[in-house]
Amino acid sequence: MIASAAVRRELLDLALPIVGEPSEVRDASWDHGESEVWRVSGPLATVAVKAHRQGRKFDQELTAYRDWLPALAAGGGGSPVSARGWAWVGAPGVRTPRLLAHRVEHPRALVLSWEEGAVLEGARPGRREELGLRERAGAFLRALHDLPHDDVDPVPLSDAYASRLDAWSRRSRGVVPEAVVANVRAAVAEALPALSKEARVRCHRDYTARNWLVAADGALVVIDLEHARPDLRVADLERLWHGEWRRDPALREAFLAGYGRELSAEEEETLRRLSALGALSTVVWAREHGDAAFEDHGWAALRRLGLA
Q1: Which alpha helices (DSSP H) does the chain contain, by range?
Q2: What is the C-alpha to C-alpha distance for residues 289 and 285, in angstroms, rounded to an integer?
Q3: Quick one: pLDDT at residue 131?
Q4: Which of 84, 160, 224, 255 is deepest in the core (most CB within 10 A)?
Q5: CA 81 → CA 73, 77, 115, 117, 241, distances in Å?
Q6: Which of 37, 61, 49 lies closest to 228, judged by CA?
């Protein structure tokens, strides 16, 4: 007996060969509405069916699951060892969901292995476990960043960030005072010249404890790769730098121990300046999606930077 029939038939059909006749379908979507996620269970398996509203995010997540993560698994000794899939991905003690099926026609969707676990953001593991999970998160990210990648994008990173700044500035009208936007633009502009010499690496681009699960066996599970694409290396650190690293420096120390190196003075300065753009985009995105708590987070970041 299916508990919920809200999932569209085309998407349920995509999961049928993997789960068998569904016995339960549960909505597991975030409130922001950018994607729809269902937990579909049957006699053969339990999977996640994720449908994207935006083609770009679908393409990015499909590429990450289809191309990037298998390369990480192979490089990290995580070749398939059982029906469950990879032992570890990128680093010991780290897993990711596996891509089981996908649909490129509308509605665009992925079928992923379902990973049980508690979202690390807001979880309360013991201190030793908490630091160990951050160290594994750092090791995974370093492996992702170190995957071979030829940056053939004709747009230099300096130009790409200038375009992002322009786009978010336009979207901020009526939400953020013009004086604050001007402060953000000045801060980011000072970071742009240094970006012209940087090459892109493969990035998760939403790498925070909100997208890390703690599995029952203690593994760290990295999820939600819809933003993943080649970008500036420190783009993956900006939210951590502004968030939990500021609140608890020991988490930063553990993460960077896993990552394998400290940040340079130049990287710290780039993070400080580009975090202004991250804070602005947080405020605007949160207002557009009615997420008051996330908007408060963005305003707090702007105030800490002395921009609001």
Answers
A1: 9-19, 55-63, 69-75, 127-145, 157-171, 178-195, 238-242, 244-247, 249-259, 265-289, 292-304
A2: 6
A3: 97
A4: 255
A5: 11, 10, 17, 21, 36
A6: 61
> pTM of this prediction?
0.91
Sheet-wide strand order for 220-222: 94-95, 220-222, 212-214, 118-119
Residue with the two structure tokens 């990295």: 222
CA 163 to chain centre: 21
Q: Which residues contact 118 (CB under 8 A, 6 or more apart)?
A: 213, 214
| Residue 64 token pair | 């990450």
The string of DSSP codes covering 152-204 is --SS-HHHHHHHHHHHHHHHTTTTS-HHHHHHHHHHHHHHHHHHTT---EEE-
Scan for tokens 């975090």, then name that residue: 275
| Whole-number pLDDT of residue 85 | 62
Of 67, 92, 54, 72, the C-alpha closest to 218 is 92
CA distance 307 to 287: 19
What pLDDT score was predicted for residue 141?
Answer: 98
> How many other C-beta atoms can be found within 10 angstroms of the C-beta atom of residue 34?
14
User: Tokens representing 55?
Assistant: 């083609």
CA distance 160 to 201: 14
Q: Would you state the pLDDT for residue 32?
A: 64
Please answer whether residues 133 and 212 qualify as being in contact, where contact means their C-beta atoms are separated by less than 8 angstroms: yes
Q: Residue 130 corresponds to which amino acid?
A: E
Cα 97 to Cα 39: distance, rounded to the nearest angstrom: 13
Distance in Å from the first CA to the final CA of the chain: 54
pLDDT beneath 70, residues of the chain: 1-7, 32-33, 75-86
- Long-range pairs of 98-107 with CB within 8 A, sequence gap ≥ 24: 98/65, 98/69, 99/62, 99/65, 99/66, 99/69, 100/18, 100/47, 101/14, 101/15, 101/17, 101/18, 102/14, 102/62, 102/66, 103/10, 103/11, 103/14, 104/58, 104/62, 107/8, 107/10, 107/11, 107/51
| Amino acid code (one letter) for 259 | Y
Distance CA 50, CA 102 (A): 9
